[in-house]
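Structure Section — protein described below
Tokens — whole-number codes for backbone shape
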Amino acid sequence: MTFRLAGKLTFFATSLALMLPLLLATSLACGGQKKPRIEKSYREWLERDVTYIITKDERDEFLRLTTDEARDKFISDFWEVRNSESGAPGNSYKDEIYRRIAFANARFGIGSGPKVGEAIVAHVHYAR
């Protein structure tokens, strides 16, 4: 083997030895960033029902939850925080949001695409 080829092999082996731990650490870090798989009903609640009123921090917190019980508690707390009549048996804010979604979907949803109704609810909500 020539001196030149031996030098290239040594350089390659050294580079590989230095890069391998970095590549492994990166792949492990990226593996931890997978989106958790959640049930369809929770995904729909997040992406359809409250997509325009949930904050980024709340959304991130919800996606970090690992059990359905924790998600149910989060949803209950989410609506209670927004309830103008704290402690009341009903939640007028929640009722109003779902009323607006139903109205917008009935009025504008057919033939307009699945997201039109929710977009109109968001527009009406933020315009107030």
The chain has a mean pLDDT of 77.
